[in-house]
């Protein structure tokens, strides 16, 4: 059970990174004057994101809902490490609420 949870969480983190990269590169092109060539790795990253979502063993709706909690946390870490903006206490509080929600969804009782 713990191994499955760690695997799922790690897969969520990889999925979030792929999505963020896929969205951040066009942002660099459109808002920061980056090269239009950034759209090619962005498209590949978004394709990877979609593929990674298919690797989860449970229903798509539940996966998307739980993934959202991890995405929020990864996005705040991205803000800090890539954009150089230190997260605030309220950022971390929001991440905690989202990750708690993700855990409730993933660990909750299942009905056939």
Key words describing this protein structure:
flat, 112 residues, mainly alpha
Counting DSSP H or I runs of 4 or more residues, the number of helices is 4
| Domains (count) | 1
Q: What's the end-to-end separation, in Å? A: 19 Å
Largest sheet: none
Quaternary state reads single chain
Question: Which stretches are poorly predicted, pLDDT < 50 over at least 5 residues?
Answer: none
Order of secondary-structure elements: HHHH
Give me the secondary-structure category.
Answer: mainly alpha
- Assess the beta-strand content as a share of residues: under 5%
What helical percentage do the residues reach? Answer: over 70%
Based on CA inertia axes, which overall geometry fits?
flat
- The strand count comes to 0
The whole-number mean of residue pLDDT values reads: 89
Kindly provide the radius of gyration, computed on alpha-carbon positions and rounded to a whole number of angstroms.
15 Å
């Amino acid at each position: 059970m713990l191994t499955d949870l760690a695997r799922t969480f790690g897969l969520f983190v990889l999925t979030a990174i792929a999505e963020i990269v896929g969205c951040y590169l066009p942002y660099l092109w459109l808002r920061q004057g980056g090269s239009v060539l950034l759209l090619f790795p962005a498209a590949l990253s978004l394709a990877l994101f979609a593929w990674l979502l298919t690797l989860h063993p449970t229903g798509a709706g539940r996966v998307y809902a739980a993934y959202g909690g991890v995405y929020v946390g990864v996005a705040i870490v991205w803000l800090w490490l890539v954009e150089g903006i230190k997260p605030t206490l309220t950022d971390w509080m929001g991440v905690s609420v989202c990750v708690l929600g993700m855990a409730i969804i993933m660990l909750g009782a299942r009905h056939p």
